[in-house]
Amino acid sequence: MSDDPLLVHEDDPYNAETRTSALVGREITPNEAFYVRNHGPMPRLSSEARIRVDGLVERVTEFAAGELADRFESHEVTATLQCAGNRRTGFLDVRDIPGETPWGPGATGTARWRGVRLRDVLAAVGVREGATHVGFTGADLSDAADPPSEFGASIPLAKAMSDEVLLAVEMNGEALPLEHGAPVRVVVPGWIGARSVKWLTRVEVRDAPSDNFFQAVSYRLLPAETDPADAGPGDGISLGPVALNCDILDPATGTEVHAGGVTVRGYAYAGGERIVTRVDVSIDGGESWCQAELLGEADPWTWRLWTCDVTLEPGTTTILARAWDDTAAAQPEHAASLWNPKGYANNSWARVPVRVRPA
Length: 359
Description:
The chain has helices spanning about 20-25, 70, 120-125, 155-160, 215, and strands at about 5-10, 15-20, 50-55, 60-65, 75-80, 110-115, 135-140, 150-155, 165-170, 175, 185, 200-205, 220, 235-240, 245-250, 255-260, 260-270, 275-280, 290, 295, 305-310, 315-325, 350-355. By secondary structure, it is mainly beta. The strands form six sheets. A five-stranded mixed β-sheet has the order 4-3-12-7-8. Strands 5, 6, 9, 10 and 11 form a five-stranded antiparallel β-sheet that branches. It has a five-stranded mixed β-sheet with strand order 16-23-22-18-19, with no helix packed on it.
């Protein structure tokens, strides 16, 4: 097994997910193990790089990235980020998804983010009447758009004005690493990672969602029969809050374990403003379930790690797991009912087959 905590899917653009072995038992994901999602080459910006705040504001203003912490009060938020394509490989048994990165369960991680509240920046420039959304633009140029354009996204103004949304300059007590958006990135807890724009260069207050390709065309849930090449702006459902999800980290898929007592470990994340309230584990195809122990404190912005002790008999077993949130919602059973042509939002039950050797 590789000692590298990241499984690299692409070198250009660089995309890598965290190996399950590097997530097990860690409430905080180390910077070097945190998944990386890019859509183009990583730009190198200095602390002098300008961030322009414009649109429906009283005072169009530019800030140097390095002066944000001096101009505004600093805050820290512990938050889970999760790619909309997390667990995409679970769809591949249903139907192929050509052209999309085959993310497993490791396109997610939790970090301590420090920076300034977006709402404080918006208050400083004054938000004008009629504003409903706040858009972000990064410095990373992507040829996934036609013509090539900078990565961008937006969130509703109400979310932008909430306490937890940051313009982050630190990650786990260190200066924000290049691959995670240095010198400044947006962190939008509870929402898909694509809305936490990296290498921030512009904040635009708007009267509608961003028309950037990655907001208007990409990161949208399309009906199963749709050809993504034919999808245009506004088609499908715009992805925002993360869907309730969980997965099994240990034992890993396809591994061999000894019969008898086995501890199953994993993560669960509710997304939005919800919290995980229960995780169930089954070793008999869902005929019966045992309730896992949830670790840590319930928090809407972070995952819950969990453990469950089971007894396995020799042979081949598929371990199942499902999560519940505080609205009493549970994960859907089958990936087949969720399959979509871009492979987003697979939040079906976790399934991990293992070989069980006699003790």
